[in-house]
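Priority: medium. Attachment 1 of 2:
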């Protein structure tokens, strides 16, 4: 009999709908562990708004320690507008930024797929949706304007504020390598998205992308300015395979693809480095307006768990089993409210999770 493989997973339920969607993802993982003979040990810690309320800081030291000692991290959502007035270092989202920095998670992977049963709710023209959408956004995650110098000062015209976009060649090179490696396992096409006609940081970005491309002669590379990329995602999304881009531009583009593929509740994401540890989370926010009402879509959280199995643990068969179960349930016309269509019927968070759990095999 084969030896049971053990993994330690830090879980951060977080705020709003985070605990609800994460609970469904954990149930799926528990079933996978039994079917495929793995042992998943879940260690729950706090971050975000709930941590501010209970402990007094968005990323408690104990949370960071547990995350560093774990094989991977699964997160629900962080954020609450009630802390908007707090100083920057005390806001809930600071927990995510600090976790990414502390763990060196420089690459964000956001797969955007338009599932066949959801084409009828795609906001694009039917002939465009019919061509399909299957995009992997590879976003630089620990540099750029989100981590650059910032501040305010008094001027003759009143207060002025600034945020600095800064990238080093090594930061660009490592995210480029990640994108080109992923492209080789897909359609071998990379689209670099920048603003090199205006920004010096983008000009350096493009120079390094071109250097790295020399090592991947089998991968086709093209470039788009970010404004054109936004337009082309609406006009011709089937053109894209892998998109590599900066921290801020990736944040914007992931929001666009979340809508053309049906709902932000469908998109998972991974924050990884060249090691095994990663943070896996749905790209949606904490959605406090529907928290506790059994309305949230748990699919993005469940697919984030599948990404964890694939990218951190190397368990591709198990990840595929979850993804197949999600596709099967969507084909059955069960829908949470955010992906409802005329022919479908509404289910809540727990029911959607149960249906996917039953479909995993």
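Attachment 2 of 2:
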């Amino acid at each position: 009999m084969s030896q049971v493989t053990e993994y330690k997973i830090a879980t951060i339920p977080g705020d709003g709908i985070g605990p609800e969607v994460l609970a469904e993802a954990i149930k799926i993982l528990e079933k996978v562990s039994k079917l495929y003979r793995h042992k998943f040990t879940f260690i729950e810690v706090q971050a975000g708004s709930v941590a501010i309320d209970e402990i007094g800081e968005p990323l408690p030291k104990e949370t960071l320690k547990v995350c560093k000692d774990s094989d991977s991290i699964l997160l629900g959502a962080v954020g609450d507008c009630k802390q908007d007035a707090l100083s920057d270092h005390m806001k809930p989202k600071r927990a995510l930024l600090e976790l990414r920095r502390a763990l060196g998670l420089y690459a964000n992977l956001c797969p955007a797929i338009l599932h066949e049963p959801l084409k009828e709710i795609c906001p694009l023209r039917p002939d465009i949706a019919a061509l399909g959408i299957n995009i992997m956004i590879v976003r630089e995650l620990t540099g750029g304007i989100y981590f650059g110098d910032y501040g305010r000062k008094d001027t003759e015209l009143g207060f002025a504020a600034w945020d600095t976009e800064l990238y080093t060649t090594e930061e660009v090179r490592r995210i480029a390598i990640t994108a080109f490696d992923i492209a080789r396992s897909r359609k071998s096409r990379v689209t670099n998205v920048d603003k090199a006609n205006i920004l010096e940081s983008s000009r350096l970005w493009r120079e390094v992308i071109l250097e790295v491309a020399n090592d991947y002669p089998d991968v086709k590379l093209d470039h788009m300015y970010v404004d054109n990329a936004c337009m082309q995602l609406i006009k011709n999304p089937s053109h894209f395979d892998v998109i590599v881009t900066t921290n801020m531009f990736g944040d914007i583009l992931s929001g666009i693809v979340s809508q053309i593929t049906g709902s932000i509740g469908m998109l998972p994401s991974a924050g990884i480095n060249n090691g095994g540890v990663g943070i896996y989370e749905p790209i949606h926010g904490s959605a406090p307006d529907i928290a506790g009402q059994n309305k949230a879509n748990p699919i993005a959280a469940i697919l984030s768990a599948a990404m964890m199995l694939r990218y951190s643990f190397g368990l591709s068969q198990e990840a595929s089993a979850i993804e197949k179960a999600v596709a099967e349930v969507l084909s059955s016309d069960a829908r949470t409210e955010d992906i409802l269509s005329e022919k479908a019927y509404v289910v809540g968070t727990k029911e959607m999770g149960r249906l996917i759990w039953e479909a995993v095999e």
